[in-house]
Amino acid sequence: MHELSLVQGLMEQVRQIARENNRERVTLVRVRIGPFSGVVTESFSFAFHALKTDDNLFSQSGLEIETPEPEFSCSGCGRRFDGSKIRDRARGHDFHFPFDWGRCPACGQEALHPEGGDEILLLQVELE
Q1: Among 20, 50, 52, 86, fewest CB within 10 Å belongs to which?
Q2: Hey, which residues does 28 pair with through a beta bridge?
Q3: For residue range 19-43, what is the model confidence (pLDDT) as tens digits?
Q4: CA distance 58 to 46
Q5: DSSP characters for 63-83?
Q6: What residues make up the domain containing 40?
Q7: What DSSP designation does 100 have?
Q8: What CATH number is associated with residue 24?
């Protein structure tokens, strides 16, 4: 489970921020995990909550995970759009990302390419 090592790195980054600001408690950590990052958000959350229990700095902290829609571009028409438009066009069929992407909602071609979405970003830290 590589999510454990990712959470350990995140906690070290937050620990440094707390030290720089002379704070003794983290109350909230908010991150964005992209849909193509390869991170299982449930495992990430589990690792965070497991590691925080023995750490006074994090023991009372919450974790919020933002998971944006996947974004795509069409090599046929060049249009860029988010994955919700693909599902809307498919009339409720939920595609299994990242393999079954469907067709471009503008031109109908199957020439879709993922755009970004591989990020793991620390967005916000609340400290006391």
Answers
A1: 20
A2: 62, 126
A3: 999 999 999 999 999 988 999 999 9
A4: 14
A5: EEEE-PPPEEEETTT--EEEH
A6: 2-68+117-127
A7: -
A8: 3.30.2320.50
